[in-house]
Amino acid sequence: MSSSGSAPLNIMVMTEGCEQQFEQLKTHLETCVGANQYSIYPLSTTTYGSPWQSSCKAVLIPAEVQPSDWSVLDAYLNAGGCVVSFNSKWNHFRGFPYPVGISPGSLIQVKLFLDPTSSPFYVTSICNEEDATSQEGITSDSKVLAKAVLEQEDAVTMAISVKGVGMMCYMDLISHNAQCDDTRSLEDDAPPRRDALRQLLGTVGINCSDQPPPPLSLCYLLASDKNLVEQFLQKAIASGSLRNDIIVGKENKVEIVLRDGRGGLPVDISPALNHIYLLPHPTDGELIGLPFDVTVYLSHLQTKILGRTIIYSPVIASTQTLFTGNIPFTESFPAELGTIAVASQQMRGKGRTGNTWISPQGCLMFTLLLKLKSQSRLASHITILQHLVALSFVDGVKSLKGYEELDLRIKWPNDIYYGSKEKAKKIGGVLITTHAMGNIVTAAIGCGVNINNAYPTVSLNSCIEVYNKETGSSLQLLTLEPLLATTVKKMEDILHEYENNELDKLLPLYYHYWLHGSATVQVEGKEATIIGIDDYGYLRVQFSDRKIATLHPDGNSFDLMQGLITLKSHN
Question: In the CATH scheme, what is the homologous superfamily, with its name and number, of domain 293-511?
Answer without folding.
Answer: Bira Bifunctional Protein; Domain 2 (3.30.930.10)
